[in-house]
C-alpha cells in the first residue's frame, strides 16, 4: 500500500466528514451574541468555517455534513450561498444537520452526542470512515494523508495532534504517546499538563480532528449514550476510555504550506487570539498564505466593486498603509494603518485607523480615531468618536480584553440593528426606537469638494462618502 493518488482517492470516496459547528464560542464575548463561532468573519472576506470546509475540498473529501445548533441562521445562509457548487449526481454534498431531536428529546449536549443524534443520517451515506472536525479553527491540512495513516496502521481511532506551549496547554486535550505513536493517556483540559519528554516547554495537544472506522464509531456512541455519568464529549469521555482496549493513534499535524516553519494552526477562540490572527495576515510574509493557488480557501463572495480611495489633499488623503482592504470599501480622505477592513466599509474624512479589524458594513464618520479596535458588523461610528486611547473610559461602554483590544458591537453603541426594519441602526429610547441619523448616502455633492481643510463638519448628521 502506498500514498498514490489512486489509493488516496479511493479512501476519500469512502469517507464522510462531519464538521461540528454548533458552538457559541463564549470566549469571543459579544462577537457571538448573534452568530455561532464558526460563522464569525475572518481574514477580510472569509468565515471561520471556510477553512475546514476548504481543507475537505482540497483533500478530495466531497461528502460533508455540517452539524449546527446555536444561532445558526447566518452560518446556514453562508453555506447555502457559498457551498452549493458540489454535484449531487456525483455523490458530492455539503449537508446541513441542525439539532432535530432525532434520537433523543433534547438538543445536542456534547460533541459525541451531536454525532450520535445523527447516526441514522450517517448510516444512509454508508461511509467506511468518519472524519470529525472542529468548525472553529484556522489552518490548512490535507486530511487524505491522515486517512492513509489511519488505514495503514489499522487503527480504530486516529487523533490529529500538534505541539503547543505548556502555558497554553490547559485549554486543550493533552496526550502522551509511546514510540510507535500510540496514545497512552488523554486528558481534556488538565490543570497540570504533561510536558513532552524531548521538549519540556511544550505539550502534545489534540486538534479536535478524529478519524473513526464507522462501525467502531457506532458502537462507542451507543455505549456512551447509555452512560448516565457521561458528558457525551469525545475529549472528556470517549477517547480516554478507548485507549486501554483499542488502537488509538496520534497523527502529527502536517501543514501543506511547506514553509519550513512550524505548522500554522490557530484557535481564534478569544478576542485577543482573534485580533492577533487577523493582524498576522497583514504582514509582509504572513504565516497563513491566503494567496496560495495550490490550496485555495473557498467562500461565498458578494459581488462588489473594487475598493476606492479618494481625496489627495494635505490632512485629507484617502490612503491605506500595511493594510488589507476588501471590495466595496471607500476610504474617503482617511488614513488606514496596519488594519484589516472587511467588505463594504466606509471611512470618512480626517479619520485615522490603526491596528484595527473592521467587519463588514461598518460606517465610520469624520474625525474619528480608532486604535487596536474590533468593530462588529453593521456598526455606525459617529463623527468625532475616539476609541482605544483611554481603555479605562472605553471599558465603561465596550469590552476591553486582557491585552487591550477593544471590541465594539452595535448594541454597545445602543444601535439595535436587529430590531430595526431597515439595515440602518436605531437608538432605543424609553418609549420607542428612533433613527440614529439620516441614512448615509454616497454622493458627490459639491460641498464635499469645497470643504475647508481640517474644518470639522456637523456631527448631528455627518455626510458619509
TrEMBL record:
EC number, as in UniProt: 2.7.7.27
Q: Which reaction does it catalyse?
A: alpha-D-glucose 1-phosphate + ATP + H(+) = ADP-alpha-D-glucose + diphosphate
A single GO molecular function term of this UniProt record: glucose-1-phosphate adenylyltransferase activity
Renumbered residue ranges of the record's region Disordered = 438-465
InterPro entries to which the protein is assigned, alphabetical: ADP-Glc_PPase, ADP_Glu_pyroP_CS, GlgC_bac, GlmU/GlgC-like_hexapep, NTP_transferase_dom, Nucleotide-diphossugar_trans, Trimer_LpxA-like_sf
Q: Which NCBIfam families match?
A: glgC, PRK00725.1, PRK00844.1
Instruction: Tell me the function of this protein.
Output: Involved in the biosynthesis of ADP-glucose, a building block required for the elongation reactions to produce glycogen. Catalyzes the reaction between ATP and alpha-D-glucose 1-phosphate (G1P) to produce pyrophosphate and ADP-Glc.
Assembly description: Homotetramer.
Q: What is this protein called?
A: Glucose-1-phosphate adenylyltransferase
Q: Gene of origin?
A: glgC
Amino acid at each position: 500500500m502506498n500514498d498514490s493518488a489512486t489509493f488516496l482517492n479511493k479512501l476519500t470516496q469512502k469517507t464522510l466528514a462531519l464538521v461540528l459547528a454548533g458552538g457559541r464560542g463564549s470566549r469571543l464575548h459579544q462577537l457571538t451574541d448573534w452568530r455561532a463561532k464558526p460563522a464569525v468573519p475572518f481574514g477580510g472576506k472569509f468565515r471561520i468555517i471556510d477553512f475546514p470546509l476548504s481543507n475537505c475540498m482540497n483533500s478530495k473529501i466531497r461528502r460533508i455534513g455540517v452539524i449546527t445548533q446555536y444561532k445558526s441562521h447566518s452560518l446556514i445562509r453562508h453555506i447555502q450561498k457559498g457551498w452549493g457548487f458540489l454535484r449531487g449526481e456525483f455523490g458530492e454534498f455539503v449537508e446541513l444537520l441542525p439539532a432535530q431531536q432525532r434520537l433523543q428529546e433534547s438538543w445536542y449536549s456534547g460533541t459525541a452526542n451531536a454525532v450520535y443524534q445523527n447516526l441514522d443520517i450517517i448510516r444512509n451515506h454508508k461511509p467506511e470512515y468518519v472524519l470529525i472536525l472542529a468548525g472553529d479553527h484556522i489552518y490548512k491540512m490535507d486530511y487524505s494523508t491522515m486517512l492513509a495513516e489511519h488505514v495503514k496502521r489499522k487503527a480504530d481511532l486516529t487523533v490529529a495532534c500538534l505541539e503547543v506551549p505548556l502555558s497554553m496547554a490547559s485549554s486543550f486535550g493533552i496526550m502522551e504517546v509511546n514510540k510507535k505513536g500510540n496514545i497512552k493517556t488523554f486528558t481534556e483540559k488538565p490543570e497540570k499538563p504533561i510536558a513532552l519528554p524531548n521538549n519540556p516547554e511544550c505539550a502534545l495537544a489534540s486538534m479536535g480532528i478524529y478519524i473513526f472506522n464507522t462501525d467502531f464509531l457506532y458502537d462507542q456512541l451507543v455505549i456512551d449514550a447509555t452512560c448516565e455519568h457521561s458528558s457525551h464529549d469525545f475529549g472528556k469521555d470517549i477517547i480516554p476510555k478507548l485507549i486501554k482496549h483499542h488502537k488509538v493513534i496520534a497523527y502529527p499535524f502536517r501543514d501543506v504550506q511547506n514553509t519550513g516553519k512550524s505548522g500554522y494552526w490557530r484557535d481564534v477562540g478569544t478576542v485577543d487570539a482573534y485580533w492577533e490572527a487577523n493582524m498576522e495576515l497583514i504582514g509582509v510574509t504572513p504565516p497563513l498564505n491566503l494567496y496560495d493557488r495550490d490550496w485555495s480557501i473557498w467562500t461565498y463572495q458578494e459581488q462588489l466593486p473594487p475598493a476606492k480611495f479618494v481625496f489627495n489633499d494635505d490632512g485629507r488623503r484617502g490612503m491605506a498603509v500595511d493594510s488589507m482592504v476588501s471590495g466595496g470599501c471607500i476610504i474617503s480622505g482617511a488614513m488606514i494603518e496596519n488594519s484589516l477592513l472587511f467588505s463594504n466599509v466606509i471611512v470618512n474624512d480626517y479619520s485615522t485607523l490603526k491596528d484595527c479589524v473592521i467587519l463588514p458594513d461598518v460606517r465610520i464618520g469624520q474625525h474619528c480615531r480608532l486604535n487596536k479596535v474590533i468593530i462588529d458588523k453593521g456598526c455606525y461610528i459617529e463623527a468625532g468618536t475616539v476609541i482605544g486611547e483611554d481603555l479605562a473610559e472605553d471599558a465603561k461602554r465596550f469590552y476591553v480584553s486582557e491585552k487591550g483590544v477593544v471590541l465594539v458591537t452595535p448594541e454597545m453603541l445602543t444601535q439595535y440593528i436587529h430590531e430595526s426594519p431597515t439595515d440602518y441602526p436605531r437608538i432605543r429610547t424609553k418609549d420607542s426606537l428612533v433613527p440614529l441619523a439620516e441614512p448615509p448616502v454616497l454622493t458627490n455633492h459639491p460641498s464635499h469638494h469645497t470643504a475647508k481643510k481640517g474644518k470639522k463638519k456637523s456631527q448631528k448628521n455627518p455626510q458619509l462618502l
